[in-house]
Each structure stands twice: as C-alpha cells, then as structure tokens.
Design a protein that fits this description.
two-stranded antiparallel ribbon, five-stranded mixed sheet, 6 helices, Rossmann fold, 142 residues, 38% helix
Length: 142
C-alpha cells in the first residue's frame, strides 16, 4: 500500500496545474483479503462474542473489555456507534457469534456483564463479574 501527493503530475502530462493525491494497493493483498471474506461480505470466522453496549460510560468499558478478550485470543466484535439494543442484537445474531455480552450503564454501575446465548447452546443469561476476565474467558471457550 502506498500513496502521496501528485500535485505536479497533471501538469507534467500537459494539463493545468492541479492538486492531486493518489494511493495504490497491491492485487495480491486484495486477493488475500477477499479469501478471508465469505460471499455475504462478512468475516469467514464468526466472532466468539459480540458486545452489546449502551451509554457513554458503558461504551468505553465495552472497548476495554473487547481489547482484553482479544488479547486472550478471542474474536470479539462490538458496535461502537451507540445504536439501540435491538439493532445491536440483530447485528450480533447476523455476526454468527454464539454469545452476546450486554453492558449498559446499569450493568457497569454493578460491575457485571450479562452473557446471553445467541445460538441455543445454553439456556438463560449469566451474570459475570466485569473484572473477572478468566471466568468470562472460561465461559466463552468451547
């Protein structure tokens, strides 16, 4: 991948002085990227967890949680845009994730995260301590 400013290029080719920028991406890199994407346009590997969050403080905590879980080798997806819970759960379901972690401002105030199964592998939701990553990881790993 490369690029930069090409302000003098149009003038060199006989045109008027024109401000310009450009970039390029190698075909091999595009082919490798496309090989990782299925026909629906989503990542070939579903995330292990989708973090559903609502509220400014919960959104920041969700980003920290996702980073911690990713650091332990889990695939985690989340919606950092502050969408409604319903929209986020639809995205979580479409992502193929087996679990959704629900983190709102109320859960954050209690120091918990709610784990909800999305694929029927487990009934009911589980309240987990937000700062107990080992227990959370153990619950998520098959």
């Amino acid at each position: 991948c490369g690029g930069g400013r090409y302000d003098g290029l149009v003038e060199q080719l006989g045109g008027a002085a024109t401000p310009a920028v450009g970039w390029a991406l190698g075909m091999e890199r595009l082919v490798l990227l496309l090989a990782q994407v299925d026909k629906t346009g989503s990542s070939a590997a579903a995330p292990d967890l989708y973090v559903v969050n609502r509220g400014a403080a919960a959104e920041a905590a969700a980003l920290v949680l996702a980073r911690g879980l990713r650091g332990q080798g889990l695939r985690v997806d989340l919606d950092p845009g502050g969408s409604a819970f319903g929209k986020q759960f639809k995205r979580a379901d479409r992502s193929g994730a087996p679990w959704a972690a629900v983190l709102g401002d109320d859960e954050l105030a209690q120091g918990v995260v709610l784990l909800k199964p999305l694929r029927g592998q487990d009934a009911g939701e589980h309240r987990m301590e937000l700062n107990d990553l080992p227990a959370l990881i153990a619950r998520l790993r098959p």
